[in-house]
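User: Fold this; tokens only.

Assistant: Input:
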Amino acid sequence: MKLPAVSDVDRELVVNETFGPTFQGEGPSTGRYAHFVRLFGCHLSCIWCDSPQTHDATRCDLADEQRVLSIEDILSWLAAGPADLLVVTGGEPLLQPHVVGRLLGAIRERALATDIEIETSGTIAPTDMITSAVTRFNVSPKLSHSGLRRHQRIRPAVLRDLADSGKAVWKFVVQALDDLDEIQELVDTYGLHPVWVMPEGTDSSTVLARMRMLADPVLARRWNLSTRLHTLLWENDRGR
């Protein structure tokens, strides 16, 4: 992954795309008016990843998928249409912790977003600056169907750190009913709550079919079910 020069590390972000207004498509804020900053780079490589343009050179021309933006660039973009909800996603946003913290602090100082969410895999602990600035961490620990080894995708100290922040919700991507038992083991081991279960899929027919499959079993466990609203509306279009 191409990163800014050391002298710029605290004021420049490697970004894949910025977009909005749109709707938050997943988790507890589904349907909210939102703007997105999608950061470039990921240290994981899930076999079903729906944003390969952030890291996967076998599927995308990564040179064309990244640009360096300063904090002021992003603040100016937000100032043109302040966000009710700003979602910082990826890739993995916490790979660029210092500049993300500074960006979020500046957004709070200038009141450019009412709420801020970070989408993260739960494998990198956030800095204190980030934790103080966000409204919520949407944490998505990866299950075995991601193709990753457990030590890559499950970092106990990080999960506990995020749980202790009081700002984490836990959003699990599910393909099959057996995945619910794997979620239950993580919930019981690390005290993860609240839980949101979301079907894996990049087209509306798959998302709807898996939601229907999951609905009753998720209800039986007293968990929450998340759709993928952007997929239902716009299929797999970028920037929506």
